[in-house]
Amino acid sequence: xxxxxxxxxxxxxxxxxxxxxxxxxxxxxxxxxxxxxxxxxxxxxxxxxxxxxxxxxxxxxxxxxxxxxxxxxxxxxxxxxxxxx
Length: 85
Description:
Helices cover 64% and strands 0% of the residues. The chain is mainly alpha-helical. It has a domain at 29-85. The longest helix is centred in the C-terminal third of the chain and has 17 residues, at 66-82. It is extended and about 70 Å long.
């Protein structure tokens, strides 16, 4: 207790450093794998973000193959973007 009274700034710093939990809370929906159906339903402003593509790959392991991903981009993503979907 005397430490807190004598060094309030140091005590506050220690509280911040050690008082905050380093464990993460529940994962946000943005971190879960994404199914193809869910991806197709997304609004364009979210649908084409890099993070969304990573989630899509997480939900569709075959898209992790570089050739399969390139084919998906050419056959699905590019036409959808051109049509504004």
